[in-house]
Structure formats: C-alpha cells, structure tokens
Write the structure tokens for this entry.
Amino acid sequence: MDPCRLGAAEASALIASGDLGVEDLARACLARIAEREPRIRAWSWLDPQQVLRAARQLDKTPRIGPLHGIPVGVKDVFDTVDMPTEHNSPLYRGHRPGQDAGCVATLRAAGALIFGKTDTTEFAAAGRWAATGNPHDPTHSAGGSSSGSAAAVADFQVPLALGTQTGGSLIRPASFNGAFALKPTWGVVSREGAKLYSATLDTVGWYGRSVADLRLLAELYEIPAAPSGPIPAVSGLRIALCESPVWSHAEAATRDAMAEAARRLAAAGATVTRLDLPQDFAWLPTEHHKAVLHGEGRAAFLSLAREHGSRVHADFLSRAANGANITPAQLRTAYDTAARCRGAFDDIAAGFHGVLTPSSTGTAPAGRNPGNPVFNQMWTLLHVPCVNLPGLTAADGLPIGVTLAGPRFADFALLDVAERIAPLLRGQ
Amino acid sequence: MDPCRLGAAEASALIASGDLGVEDLARACLARIAEREPRIRAWSWLDPQQVLRAARQLDKTPRIGPLHGIPVGVKDVFDTVDMPTEHNSPLYRGHRPGQDAGCVATLRAAGALIFGKTDTTEFAAAGRWAATGNPHDPTHSAGGSSSGSAAAVADFQVPLALGTQTGGSLIRPASFNGAFALKPTWGVVSREGAKLYSATLDTVGWYGRSVADLRLLAELYEIPAAPSGPIPAVSGLRIALCESPVWSHAEAATRDAMAEAARRLAAAGATVTRLDLPQDFAWLPTEHHKAVLHGEGRAAFLSLAREHGSRVHADFLSRAANGANITPAQLRTAYDTAARCRGAFDDIAAGFHGVLTPSSTGTAPAGRNPGNPVFNQMWTLLHVPCVNLPGLTAADGLPIGVTLAGPRFADFALLDVAERIAPLLRGQ
C-alpha cells in the first residue's frame, strides 16, 4: 500500500513501531500532491523542502506524541508561525502572524508534521471561493469553506486536516468529497488564532480517513466526555432519522442517501425512528442562524472595512455595514431560541444513540460554487457534535455523506456509534 | 488646563477646531506619564519617540476620523502591529503579532494615536499580577486584569484605554481607580486579536474620563442600539437597586456607596426600587460563571501547556488540566441557566432606566492583589452592558464606583442614563 493512503491512526502505529519513516510518509504524500495538485488545487501554500526538513528532523527525534510525523493540512484561516496565513484574501498576501493558532500549536507539540496551508473561501465566510476541485471530478466543487482540507484528505494527499465551521464549512465539504469529519461540540477546541467570523458559531474541527482518525484529534484536544452507557453493536442501536426543518432543500441525492442509510441500518437490526423536532426549532437553520451570523459578522469585519475600504470584497463591506439589516431584537430572539433548543435537543437526543440527518443538499455543484450550508446551520447553532459519514455514492457518481449528530459533549460516544455505522455505508 | 486632563471628546473637539495640536496633546500626556510612571507603572511598553513621530504625522494629515490624534492606551492582551504584545507573560517577551487586533485597527483607522501597551494580569486571567499602582494611593492595587488601562485613564495619562472583561476585569479596576468604563453587550465589538480565555465571557470594553468619552467609542464600533424611549431627567428616572445574589461579599465601602448613590438619586427625584432577582439567578455569579470560565479556559490554555510545559505559570497548567474538575453536566447547566436568565433579565430591566449594582466588593486592596470580581461575574455571563460610574469616595479615601446595568443592546440608552446620573455621584 502506498503510505499516502494510510489513515492517521494507521500511520501513527507504523511510525511508532519503526515500520514507517516520517520522511517516507512525507515523500509519499508529496508525490501524491505533485501528481494531483494541478487538477485539485487543495493547497494555498506548501513548500516540499520545508516539509522534508521537518520530516527528517522528526525521524531523528524520539517520539514526541501521538501525532509524531503525521502530515496535517491546515486550513489557511489558522495562524501558522512558519507559513503565510492568507485567508484567500489579497489583503493578507504574505501575512506572517508570528505564532501558531492554539490548535496548530497543540498538533505541533504532539509531533505532527504541519504540511502546508489549504485553500478556503475568503476568511472562511464569503467573498472569493477556493480554487479547489473535487477529487472525484475536478470540474465539480470541493465545497466550502474548508475546501482544500476536505479535498486533500479525501484525495489521499494528507491523512488529517484542520477546518472550521460557522455555517456548514466542515460537514458539507466532507459530504461532497467523501471524507470523515468531526465538528465537535462548540467551545471544546480553542479557536484562538483562527479568523473570527461569529463567536457563537465558529467551531474548529477536522477531517480524517476513518473514525479512528477523528478520535485521534478528539483525544489530543482532550474534548470533555459526558458519561455514556456502553455503545451496542449496530443491531442494538437506536437511531433517529431527522429530516430537519429544511427538508424541502433536499435534492434527490440527499433524499436517496438518507433513505439508503436508514435502510442499511434497519437491515442490520438497528431501530430507526423518525424524529420531528418541536416547532421551536423551525427557524434555527435559516432566520436565527442568519441573524447570529450577520449580527456578529458585522463586528467581525468592521475593522477590515475601516482599514481597507473599497479594497475589501463587497461581501465583507456589506457585513460590516449590517447589509442584512439584523436588528437587536432579531439577534436576541435568535440567541434565546437557540439556547432553549440546545437544552431541548440534548434531552431529545439522549433517547437515541445518534441522530441521522443530511450533510448537504445534494452532491458537489459544478464549477467552484461552495454549495448550500442550509442543512448544517442548525447543528452549528445548536453547538452539538456532528460526524460526517462518507461511503454512499449518488446517481451522478459523486460521493454523498450523512451526518450523525448527538447531544453536546457526547463527542466520544458519537464517534463510537459512527465507528459501528461507517462500514455499513461504505458497503463493508 | 493641562491638555493631559482633557477627556477624549473634549480633546477631539479642540483638535478638530485647530485649537489643540496632536503633538501638544501627546507631549502633555508624555510629560504626565514621565512624572507618574515610576509610581503608577501603568505601561508595559511605551516609546515616547514613536508616539511623537506618529503625533507629528497626524498633525500633518487632514482629519482622518473622530479619534484623530486622541491618545489611547491598549491593554497588552491586544495584538498591535508596531508594539510588542506580551500578555504580562515571560513566554511572550518581545512577541510581535504581525497585525493589529480588530478593535485596535478600527481605532487607528479613525485617527487614534495608539500610545502604548498597558500592564495586565497575565493573559487577562491569572498567573502574574500587573505591577500597576493605584493613582490615588500607589501602595494600593489598580485592580485587574485591565490594571494599566484603568490607572492610565484615571491618572490623566491618556484620555482613553481599551480593556477586556471575562470576570470583572473592566468594571472592578474602574471602581478602584475612579474611572468611567463601559463593558458593552457581549459580541458587539470584535474580540479578534485579543487573547482568548472564554468565548462566552470575553468582552472588549474601554475606559474614559466621562460618559461622552465612552460614547465616542460606542459610536466608533457601531454598537447596535435597541430602540428606547426618550431618557428623562434624573427626576423622571426609574432605577432598580440590585444588591445581587452575592451581597454578602459587600464590604462597608460598597454598602455605603450603594446607599449613598440611592440616596442622591432619590433626593434628585428619581424613583429607586429594590430589585431582588429570581432564584434562577442565584448561582450565576459563582458556580455557573466558574463552570464557563474554567470549562472554556481548559481549551484556551491547552496549547500553552503543551508547548511550554513547566515554563507556564501553574494557574494555566491547572486550567489546561481542568484542575477545577468542571464536568460537561456543570458546563451545560451553566450555559443553559445563563441563557435563560439573559432573556429574563432583559424583561426585568425593561421596566427600569437602569439597574444599580456594586462594581466591586470594596475599595482597592493594599499591594498588587487585583481584588475580587464576584460582583461583576454575573453581568459578564448575562452579556449585558455595564457602565462604571465613579465619583464616590470611601472612608479610606479611595474611590469606589457603582455599576449601572441594562438589557442587552441597550448600551446607548444606558450611556444616556449614565450621563444623567454621573454628576450626582461626582457631587456636581
């Protein structure tokens, strides 16, 4: 097997046992990138010589931690001390932030090989789209805003990559590219040194090749784990099927994926129950998410507009000027409804091992359009953990994922459930 | 009048009319600092030559904005492109972040003269205390964590300064030093480029010499304003007197200050009503604030602990290791109770023009102990705007402030009310 195809957990074990050199793994990833980058364009910055120097250094160093020598792509909205941080914005060309973002520093302290910066929608928000193509068909989008991170992991270029989600920027690209992704419970991983858009919504997460890869970083960041009972085999799972308040946005690919996932779960003996959320949730994915996003986005982009004026993309000038006309009353209603629903959803979700819900409206759009995050926004606002489970393929031949969600702080239990379900969706 | 004694709004008008040069103002402030710094030690970094160069440049430039030439001190937890950002941490000695924090960039784009960096409790959190002394008696503390900012403004060194509050780091130093301060509604001023401690609690705010000074920055940052009725004269004000659930922490100075403020308001014709908050609020200032602070502080300081190990102050190693043993259930309860109380407090406060409550447990402690934030923590967690009103003096001769709080997004209405009340407390 080409080492570039190893998952992070697999590669970590081989490096620990001495059966794989860090430089060998790095060279395999670099070779894959060299072959694929002209079409996929996952990277906004990557210096192969810098990677190899760091890899050789790690080969000479006693094992630092669980990520020793594991290549990790970093979405280019995270500060990095030894690479530019450009946010896909001409205003940040060549910007050097002087230190690592918290989550990057933690990776490095665990021995990770920070590989390069991955392309992103401008400021992980709006404005310019990433140049990244979908590994399954580069004429289609990789989604956004964590475009390059999702594509790089799905395309066997690196086994792990960091992303962020404010609307649907982690889970939707995972669906489009066929990658595993975890959007953890809000607030459990430091967002220091990531570009700010909305403090209520911004969530650091990551992509991997397996549930085990997702768990590796959940353990590294010491995500708090609410106590949970033992997770049974698939035949003992109680799964809620939640179309969510925005089901009307589901295209055929998404409707089929949800039905197929439910069918396979039921065929394997799981109890699959339809879940209709209370009326209080009705406007979370749309009006309430929008109020928070644009209400807080006004503050987030004000300085950019003041400093750079018309050099700033119109999308951000509009946010700074409250172009969406969000009123304090709308913002208050959004905050308070979301907070009420967080508690309500925790209670509802406690009755199931997982809540299955769409990861995207359909498969990756043609071109570079990052797609519609409407199916992800409610979960982001609810602060609950979400795992994208890949494996299904739509009629157009592109991947389509489904989301497994759970109550706040059930991240580890959810990963256990995801591990049971993942092989069903991959047809294993 | 020595120009260093001008408030920001006064100085701005004189600079706009050509009656005061930016360099003259800067020289007056520098002279005051040169005289006072050996005892007060408000500054962690200040280069008089750099200040004068920038001042002369501003004198040559057509008026840039409302802050043109106004000296502003910046708490040394905000990134600054042309000054070190050290967080009072040996780990950040000489650190250069490569760009301004959002709120600093907005100041600069409005013509502000960024004067220097002010001393702070380490990372605005714990660990090392600021060296700053109280201008009214340098053997006493200036409070914390925004120690240098509060002292510099109260001591006529600069008319404005930025600070942050996660527990009581803006309002308590304002009380101790006798400064006006605004802790705005949570989320309305970008916290990008400020050291992260708790995303739920961290709030950017500022100190000024008057309510007009506070309003100057509220307008600059375009804080959203909920519609409010006209604000009457003092004789028409309805003021709630809220001892808060932690009244048992009030020392004689605080009990006296609250009584005296109520007496003067009533004497001026205001209706002063005692407000007892519902039982749901009982643990907000203590258990629930602590759960959020330490729950989110674990994530915030994890990378520091991983990167620097035993070189990190024990306070932060403890936070990274969840030394307070905050459980997910405690954190969830804290989040949900706080959210519930936010809505409830908005409703309660809507019946008053302002809620009067203690700013500190008493006057500034001897030495450099930053004091107890217990009276501020509930308001921080409630996300509501708070103004510290100075003017009263305790039996020990030190200043003591009182807080005026209001519902979320009532910042501007609250400033109007504060403007009515301020002269009563100053004995004017």
